[in-house]
Every structure is written in C-alpha cells, then in structure tokens.
Design a protein that fits this description.
Strand order of the largest sheet of chain A: 7-8-9-3-10-11
CATH class of one domain in chain B: Mainly Alpha
Strand content of chain A: 15-25%
Low-confidence stretches of chain A: none
Shape of chain B: flat
CATH class of one domain in chain A: Alpha Beta
Low-confidence stretches of chain B: none
Distance between the termini of chain B: 31 Å
Largest interface: A-B, 29 and 18 residues
Largest sheet of chain B: none
Largest sheet of chain A: 6 strands, mixed
Order of helices and strands of chain A: EEEHEEEHEHHHHHEHEHEEH
Mean pLDDT of chain A: 85
Number of helices of chain A: 10
Oligomer: heterodimer
C-alpha cells in the first residue's frame, strides 16, 4: 500500500437546527491510500455526509470541524473556495447516486463531459472532444461519437451512470468518491457499472471511497470497509474479514443479509444498543 | 404533394435531426392554428408587423405633413380615418405609430429580460444576505403602481422614446427577477448543479452556463404575456406627453391630442385608441395561446 492520500482525524459535521444541533458525523478518523475503501451503514448513518465533507460540499448551514484533514499533503481545512474549485474534478471527484438527476437535462452528454476539460486542462475544443470520445470509450459506450451528441433523457440508467463516471474521471483525479453509484440502477446493470468502475480505478491506481448500504457488493469490491452507525465509525476491517467482524452492529448487519445458500423464513433484525453511540 | 409533405413532417420516426426539428415546428404551428384565440392573436400581431414594415407603402400621406385648410376632416375616401387638428392623415399616423410601439416593445424586452435574469438568478443562487438585499430592492419597485413609477422616471429623465424605454424597463424587471429567483431556487437544489460544482466549475460559470438557460423558457413566456402591459404603459406615457415627442406619430400622444375635440370630431382620438386596444388584445391572445399550446401540463 502506498503512502496515504487522505488523512482524516476527528471529523465532525453538525447541522444547527430549530431543535438543537444534529450531529451527522462524530469523531470520524481514517486514512486512505491508493486503495478501495468501502463505507457501509444504514440510512442516516452519515456515510454520504462524510463523503461530501471530504469535497467541501456540506450544504449550508452544516459545520465541519476536524483535527486534521489533509489530501496529498494539502490542508483541506484551510482551502479557499478558489482552491476547492481547483481540487474538485481535477484531484478528487464524486459519482452521485442517480444519473437521472445528476446530468443537466438541457446539455448534450459530450458538452458536459468536456466541461471538466475546459475547466481544468484548458484544452482546445478539438482536444476536449477527442478526450471526451476516448473517455466514453473507456467506460465502454459502444458508439461514443453518437452518444456524445445525445441528451441525458435519451440514455438508459446504466449508460447515464457510465457517462457520469466519464465526466468525473476525465481530468484523471487521484481520488474518486462513489456515493451509492449503483443503487438507482437495476440489478443486471449494477454489476456492469461496478466492473467498469473497478477496471478504471485499478488501471489508474486511484483511491476510491465506495459508499453503499449493500454489504455484499462492498465486501466483494473493496479492500477495506468502514462501518458507520449514528455518525460514528464503529468498526474498520478488511473486506474479506467482514464475516468475522467483532462489533455487534456489524455482526447484526451481516446476519440480516439474505443468503441463497441458507434460506430463512425470517431475516434477523438489528437490535440497537444505545451504548454503541457512546 | 401536400399529403406527402405533411406525412414527412409528422412521421414518428424522423430520419434526420432537421426533419425532427421541422416536424416539431410543424406540430407546434398546427396546434396554434387549431387554437382559435392564438390564431386571432397571431393574425393581429402579424398585421401589426406588416403595418409597421410597409407603413410608407400602405399610405400615400406623410405622417407629419400638415394640411391646415383640411384640418379635422371627417373620414372620407381621401382620408379613410379623417385628419387631426393639424390636417395630418390619421391612417398614416396610426400606421407609422405601429413602428414606435414595436420599437418600444422590442427595446423593453431586450433590456428587461437580462436585468431580471441577472438579479433573480444571483439572488436565488447566492442566498443569504445577497438574496435578502436584492429581493427587498425588488419589493421596493413592486410596491409602486407600475404606471405611476414609470411616470416618475420618465418625468425625471425627460421626455423621449429612449427615456420612455428606460422608464418602462425600470418598472418591468422586478417580475422577471421574481420568476428567475424561484426557478433558480428549484434548479440549484438539483443534483446536476452539484455535479457541476464537483467538476470544479466556478459560481459564475454555474450561474450563466447551467442556471440561466433553464430559467429562460419561463422568462420568455412571461415576456409574451407582458407585451400588452408594455404597450399600455408606453401609450400612457405618450398620452401624458412623456413618451415620443411631437411631431412623431405615437398612439398615446394621438389620443391625447384628440381629447379636446372628442365630442365633435370623435375620429381623432378613437382611431389610435382602437389601435392600442386591438394590439394589446392581440398580444394577450397570442401569449395565452402560446402558453396553452406549449405548456405540456395544460394539455
């Protein structure tokens, strides 16, 4: 494993609201090298908020505090808006959940992908077009010339998500955050998109943070897994050791996964212990 | 021949992009023609445009040539709509007045839409105190009756067509800012704006490349519905002597000059008044029709 790309210590994200402060992420610490890290947890456990905090995209009025938050030697806590703009897209980027909403409906796909080129690489129009076509080919779109002329509503969900991946990877960032990239797709397409994502991440030696609530996908796809509950990282383990997890929450989650080999009439439910939040 | 053309246009499997675009235009066009209000509006607006373009050909008289022996002549074969208090042909003046009206409408549209869009999108996207300040300024403008405010601006700037355009624009932009802001609030929440932020786009780039194009359609619809109001305000300013200056033919000013003789020589005030009425009606009908035809929700 190479030197760490991202170091997070004591990350806290809180949202002041009418009924007091809501802590979305509490004291999260982890490091990331050029590896694939999965973050799992149920809805509201702070997975997505963690991902957004890494990109400086926590929506107002959220407050982000941390002991350290460095990315490739750069202190993220002291970044100005302009420095963030240079980082986003070029050094790290994010694939969002649903391609139906994350692509601009009134711009062609090609235009949206090459926008990153104009923003960061300052390439000529011709060069941006060439790169866009090459990138669409890399995400295994069959007729890239044609597809780059299409509008998002003319694409299927799987194609849309591949376009999204192309859009986020074209400037060759070192870190990609994938926030439930396959949960809006149907099962048959999910594997295909994951395979493409996996191949690109390996090929380019990038770091990947894969946010999901699908334990099976995460355990087969990632090197390391963080399990979050109530805004805390309750356990960190290697993906293949997920079945031998120690924390009761992780074990409950694993037990609640249906299995074809051992069919059960009723799945186990997670019994929560308030002590986990301490 | 016509059969093959219309089937080529209405095919549901167009062979080229051009055919699809032309087909869409054709379908929109037939929808307008089938909608009686839109059709009437379209005819009136088309006639207005023709009248403005061909004014010198449609009337043998000059709009400003005086003929004092023949003043206040009633409608006759020589002067279809009669003459005014200086013996000028009212038909010629009404036709040339269409040019002034159209100029004002066009200039106001060009000025108002960008101001409203800029203020509204910036307020909606920036939020916080920027939003509060910009929207309170908008509220101040909205708090005055439109004609009264335009009147105050025109009086302060001095009479003239350019100043009338500025005065009307200053009173018309707040509605557009409101529309643009509410559209922006909805668009700014969407994921593809987040995606653009993720790509590293700057705030200005997001505003002008992503948000403004999406606000444009509702602003344009509002503009077509607003044109009748612009015409009425322009005529109101002209009537009060703050619009186009004599001897330029302007409908509001013509009504005003016919006011003194309205009981004995009714045609002097009535003809330009009818022109204002019919043209406003035409723009309103067309705007309503366009909204009905192009709003998928109402169909």
């Amino acid at each position: 494993m190479s030197a760490s790309l991202l170091t997070i210590e004591d990350l806290n994200v809180s949202f002041p609201g009418r009924s007091g402060i809501t802590h979305a992420v509490r004291n999260a610490s982890f490091t990331l090298g050029r590896e694939r890290l999965g973050i799992v947890g149920e809805s509201g456990s702070g997975k997505s908020t963690t991902g957004r905090a890494l990109l400086g995209l926590v929506p107002r009025p959220g407050i982000v505090t941390a002991q350290t938050m460095t990315y490739a030697g750069r202190n993220l806590l002291a970044c100005s808006e302009r420095e963030w703009q240079e980082l986003r897209g070029r050094r790290m980027s994010m694939v969002m959940q649903d391609p139906k909403y994350s692509l601009n409906p009134v711009q062609t796909v090609g235009h949206q992908i090459s926008e990153t080129c104009y923003l960061h690489l300052r390439t000529s129009r011709e060069d941006a077009r060439r790169r866009t076509i090459a990138m669409l080919e890399a995400v295994q779109i069959r007729d890239p010339e044609l597809v780059s002329q299409l509008y998002p509503h003319q694409l299927s969900g799987g194609m849309g998500q591949r376009v999204m991946i192309a859009m986020m990877l074209i400037a060759e960032p070192d870190l990609l955050i994938a926030d439930e990239p396959t949960s809006a797709l149907d099962v048959t397409v999910q594997n295909e998109v994951l395979r493409i994502l996996d191949a690109l991440v390996r090929e380019r030696g990038m770091g990947l943070i894969f946010i999901s609530h699908n334990l099976t996908v995460v355990s087969s796809f990632c090197d390391r897994v963080l399990i979050m509950y109530g805004g805390r990282i309750v356990e960190e383990c290697a993906a293949r050791d997920l079945n031998n997890a120690r924390h009761p929450y992780t074990r409950a989650l694993v037990a609640a996964t249906p299995s074809l080999d051992v069919p059960r009439a009723e799945l186990a439910t997670v019994v929560r212990d308030p002590a986990w939040l301490q | 021949m016509t059969d093959t053309l219309s089937s080529w246009l209405t095919t549901d499997a167009p062979a080229s992009r051009r055919q699809a675009v032309l087909g869409n235009l054709y379908r929109g066009g037939t929808a307008i023609l089938r909608n009686p209000t839109a059709l009437v509006g379209l005819i009136i607006v088309a006639l207005l445009l023709l009248a403005a373009v061909f004014a010198p050909l449609l009337s043998t008289y000059s709009p400003i040539a005086q003929d004092l022996p023949n003043r206040l002549a009633p409608p006759s074969p020589a002067h279809w709509f009669g003459t005014d208090e200086l013996g000028r042909d009212i038909l010629a003046r009404t036709l040339f007045g269409a040019r002034v009206t159209l100029t004002i409408v066009a200039l106001v549209s060009i000025v108002v839409a960008p101001i409203g869009l800029a203020v509204g999108t910036v307020a909606g996207y920036a939020g916080g105190w920027v939003d509060a300040v910009l929207m309170r300024i908008t509220d101040v403008f909205l708090a005055f009756p439109r004609l009264v405010l335009a009147l105050a601006f025109a009086a302060a700037l001095g009479p003239g067509i350019e100043n009338a355009v500025i005065a009307i624009s200053l009173t018309a932009w707040p509605a557009y800012a409101r529309i643009a802001r509410s559209e922006t609030l909805a668009i700014a929440q969407s994921d593809f704006i987040q995606a653009a932020v993720l790509q590293g786009a700057s705030t200005w780039r997001i505003l002008f490349r992503h948000i403004v194009p999406l606000c444009l359609s509702s602003v344009i619809v509002r503009l077509t519905l607003d044109m009748a109001g612009i015409i009425l305000t322009a005529a109101g300013l002209g009537f009060l002597g703050l619009g186009a200056q004599p001897p330029t033919a302007e409908w509001g000013a013509m009504v005003s000059s016919g006011r003194d003789v309205i009981l004995d020589q009714w045609w002097v005030a009535t003809i330009p008044g009818l022109a204002i009425f019919i043209v406003s009606l035409g723009f309103n009908l067309l705007g309503d029709g366009l909204r009905d035809v192009f709003d998928p929700k109402s169909a």
